[in-house]
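Researcher: Structure for this, please.
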Amino acid sequence: MTLSSSDEHVPGLERPAHASPTVAEAETDEQLERVWSDPPGLWGQLRAVQNDNIGLRLMLTGFFFVILGGSVDSVVMRTQLAFPEMGLVGPQLYNELFTNHGSVTMFLVILPIFEGFAILLLPLLLGSREMPFPRLGAFAYWTFLLGGLLYYSATLFQLVPDAGWFAYTPLSGPEFSPDLALDFWVLGLGVAEVGAIAAAVEIIVGVLKLRAPGMTLTRLPLFAWAMLVTAFMILFAFTPLIIGSLLLELDRGFGTQFFNPDAGGSSLLWQHLFWIFGHPEVYIQFLPAAGIVAMVLPVMVRHRTIGYTWIVASMVGIGVLSFGLWAHHMFTTGLPPLVLAFFAAASMVIAIPAGVQIFAWVSTIAAGRVRWTTPMLFVMGFLVIFVIGGITGVMVAAVPFDLQVHDSYFVVGHLHYVLIGGVAFPIFAGVHYWWPKITGKMMDERLGRIEFWLLFVGVNVAFFPMHIVGLQGMPRRIYTYPEEMGWQALNIVSTVGVYIVVAGIAVFVWNVVRSYRHGPPAGHNPWGGDTLEWAVPSPPKQHGWTVPPVVTSRHPLWDQDDIHSGDTEVEELVQGMARWPLRWRAVLVTGTANARPEEIYRVADPSIWPLVAACGTVLIFFSELIKLRPGALLGALIIAGSVIMWNRPTEAPMTVEEERAFEDAHGIPVHAGGSLVISRWGMGLSVLFVSIGFASLLLAYFYLRLDNAAWPPSGIAMPDLGALATGTALVVAAAAAVWVALRRVRDAGTTSFKGWLVAGSVIGIAAAVHLFLHINGLEFDSKTHAYGSIYHTLAGFLLLMVVIGAVMTTMMAVWAVQGHFTNHRHVPVTNTATWWAAISVIWVIGAATLGLGPVVT
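Model: Predicted structure, token format:
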């Protein structure tokens, strides 16, 4: 499809989207393409780090899992429920089906697809050549893929998880699920969660630091805002889930007592840790969908977005508020009335920012003139279905109403309206919208309309009756029902609706295949889009931008005659980057708020080590699965070796003098040996991840502490304060030595800092050995009581952080002796010092908790 003559007045179509290529562009384009392209062949694909490659892989793998775990499972379940007392599947298989359906959808489908969208599109949207950590992006994909395959391998052993996607204890504990089925759930999905967090770090730094000059935060595309908020939410939501999964696996595999009330544990602790993830997860899925809608809608109605600032504020508001209502799912667990009132209010208040977005989009539609393309149809379908789901969400936020419909099919209907209307429809809109850019071909509009109407009708036919049958008393998660209940007619309607949905998905798949093979050429901007991605060729080149753009508007292609021109200094800089450097992958870093050029740095080249590190991660989880625990140690060594290899200093492809020549010409630092700015952000987010994990363990500690009258219980000695104080002194001393080394290398280059790094390494190793001996010398074990369980686990976490610091410092000392660091190139030393500073604070708080926790009343 192309725009007709009636569309010629669309803003931006009457002027060029970008300036004509310069002679320098044409001469250097081929050289840049060669530098930025991933290597060919299978070996090259295993080493690939390009953002378009990684983004497409994430999306395609997510779509594969949705067909496998979303469509097939739902068809079987709905067929089983179409008639009373059906015998298509038995209760055990039905439990496995709904567990798999929920788990795959929530962990392996929606979020990977959105992270794939982000990694694929953000460099084009932001005017950058690449994401900040290409190897981390590759690691994110491999862990997601291998984790999903590990989870699905349960089918090969006939050990499919059957405790629901929420895995409530004690049902998921060793007493009621003694086989390995739940271990596949915990460990397989745990690997995928690691990948989600890695991608989130990549997205945060990419949005905040790799933007075109002039693209201030107030000019940021709304999809980028949505992904930025989502990525922070992933860090704060998935980390407690990883900690909760760790505690559950320790109970299952090592005999700890975190969730055993008879030994001081609490089954509700799992629910708190899980729903701290589980309810924000709904908004983690909604916000990227809202970002897609915010990109598609103004283009399809030929009008700038109304209420941009309000939409951004609502996204941030949702991101914050979503963490204040996890107990919304625990209204029936016996929480105090005051707590119920707080979470009920929070559950209702969060509808306000969502409503702000709806009103902004409706206002934009009213102010413009709609083009009824397939992407716009899916946007309109989203508005209708999501509003219905939002209304029922406010209903279940009321405690009295929730007590009546909790665990009924009313909740199933509500959930699917929110997830399919609020998430799936925008995904289809985004695929149709950006397909021409990614492939250079248009999708078939006739087939697109057919798939939309099949999906729109199917969703409403399938899930609206569930609200009614839920109000009639039909509980969720039952595999059959008696005929006299009178639920048959509504269940038949719902089953027919699911068949219609599957037909719509089939048409979509056919449209994708047909368009990829035979679709008409799209051109660079078939929709008359306003954002930067529509200024590059379709499909984009590997390096994206030969001349980086300069932004002066929220709608650069509608408002700017030439997106490569700005003030004199910036224009000279972006034109200079089209001519130099041409031997390494150079990316421009800009200021977080003002988007002024800050630095040019070298992003990582293709590497096999992210795949090796992902294999090491899976080996740890798989070794625990089969209880071959020496394999976990081997996996840890593989991860350590891989991370060292992919971060090891390499000889820069240019001299310091060449860097300074460009710096003098354009007034911007050049770091071919690694970015101080980007590495600082990366390490800061790593510390944030560790801090959230640590806070989750503290939550578990004090939750159990307050739930037990005797802490520690009778017969268990008080902790050894002297050993904890010695460990504190060693950790602080190691941190101080590394910071002195960093100060010396900054001030004096290589003349006097190596000894301090060696000292920091020795003290760090001594601290790790001391902590290891302390844990192994404890007079109580981790299996008798929850006190011992949490003490050993928290102390083990602190030990792991110190071991990581000791390994980092040892490698810094080795690389320093080899002459890799100077006062101009010392990024790894800075990162190591930052790690030790953070671990010192965490250790002091952790040691105080372990030592003084028993005496706190």
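Researcher: Any notable elements?
Model: Residues 1-20 have pLDDT under 50 and may be disordered. The two ends are 70 Å apart (CA to CA).
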